[in-house]
Amino acid sequence: MKMLCNMIWWAAFITSAVVVQSLLPGLDALVVGLLILLQNRDYKNMFWLAPFFIFLQEGMGTRFFGGSIFLYSVVVVIFRMSLWFFEVENFLFVFLLSACLMVPYYVLDWFMASLQNITFDMEKTLDKCFLQAVFLPFAWYFCTMTRRWTKYDDVT
Amino acid sequence: MYTWNQRTRTLDELAENIGLELTGVALTSMHTLRDFALDYWRRYFALVSVREENEQLKARLDSLEARLVEDRESLAELERLRGLIDLPKSPSWKPLGARVLAGRMGPNAVRASIVINRGYVMGGRPNTPIITNNGLVGRILRASPHMATVLLITDPTSRVAISSQTGRAFGILIGKGPELQLEVIYMRRDANIKHGDVLITAGVDQKFPKGIPVARVTRVAHSDYTQFLVVEAVPLVDLRHLEEVVLLDPTGTARLPEEFDDVPTRFAVPLAP
User: Fold this and answer.
1) How far apart are CA B148 and CA B146, in angstroms?
2) What whole-number distance in Å separates Cα of residue B149 and Cα of residue A113?
3) Which of B22, B97, B168, B236 is deepest in the core (most CB within 10 A)?
4) Residue B163: is its pLDDT beyond 70?
5) How many structural domains does chain B have?
6) Which residues of B touch A63 (CB under 8 A)?
7) Which residue segment(s) compose the domain that B186 sits in?
């Protein structure tokens, strides 16, 4: 039962994330899922969900393959490093993390623009990073609230 | 890995086939669910107020109003679809309809683009031209079996060989970004072009059929730095509010020299600037 709830939750999360991304151009909604996987130390699911997120982002994007691998690797590295210093399952930490992630999002856009001959618009990129930074903590909060429903223990 | 992928495009193709396709599945499901919910919502409102006589009249009014809105929407769609049928016909290009599912999606969607529900198994191969009854929209950038991403003409990496409809002055139309004016480069100083002229595809790049209206000239000036004219234009198609588009699938039949030269009146009608 727990496994089924978990699967339904992830299917609903991915669908919602895709819809949110279609409504807010440039937003990365799937990174919330990665953060939840890291917080839950759910490495078994992360093994297939992280590549799935990467393929989704790369498939719906218009850049050459690679950007999402860099971004999600940075998220994992920052999270792992933060484990030494912070309590990683509270709103404040997620808020700080999302603020920190503005930098790799900006750097990636700038770097890929020069690498792939795409016009780089600093103002729009900053707007995108800011939107991402604001979106992540609230989306994370909402997701963790709904995720409690999947903590169903089977009665044996 | 990045350079290997640049050479072989293996990971890009994999991402297109998995990521874009699944995105399409999610979006299509949500569109269907939204239509169903809206339909159910309307029906519910039409039924709840049927108990009393006064309420019946009210309900009837609500129902009629809802139907009117629905009919108006259907009428608008019908008009758009009729417009699409009015497109000029050519034996070398087969028109295929498609719906727009979304605009730019995700952090990797940095180019001006839209997502449509027709992939390479349905005629939407990369570089297929995309048009509406008003003019050129762009071309397919990447495609999965049932979905495709379209690069709009406003994107800075978009290049279209054009000529002016009246003066036959040739140039290359480039995008400057969404909501910015298009620019024509390499337009000769002695070219016969003026403000208000319609730019059509020249067909010399072999990517777009000749004669499709693309943009309307808004500014013509002499450059102080180059030997070419400075020409700016606005797209004829409202790229922010696209709902249906037409793909021009190449049939392989030899292109006729006069293809699309006879631009239908619908194409020639100017749009609001």
Assistant:
1) 7
2) 19
3) B236
4) yes
5) 2
6) 108, 110-111
7) 92-267
Q: Which residues of A32-58 are buried (b: 16+ CB within 10 A; e: fewer)?
A: bbbbbbbbeeeeebbeebbebbbbbbb
Q: How many CB pairs under 8 A join A and B?
A: 126
pLDDT greater than 50 at residue B61: yes
Contact call for residues A74 and A68 (beta carbons, < 8 A): no
CA distance B114 to chain A (A): 10
* CB contact at 8 A, B171 and B185: yes
> 3-state DSSP call for residue B176?
coil
Quick one: B120 and B200 in the same domain?
yes
In a domain, B31, yes or no: yes
Q: Give the domain CATH number at B148.
A: 2.40.10.340
- Which of B66, B83, B100 terminates a domain? The answer is B83
Task: Specify the pTM.
Answer: 0.79
B178 touching A, CB under 8 A? no
Query: Does residue B239 register a pLDDT over 80?
Result: yes
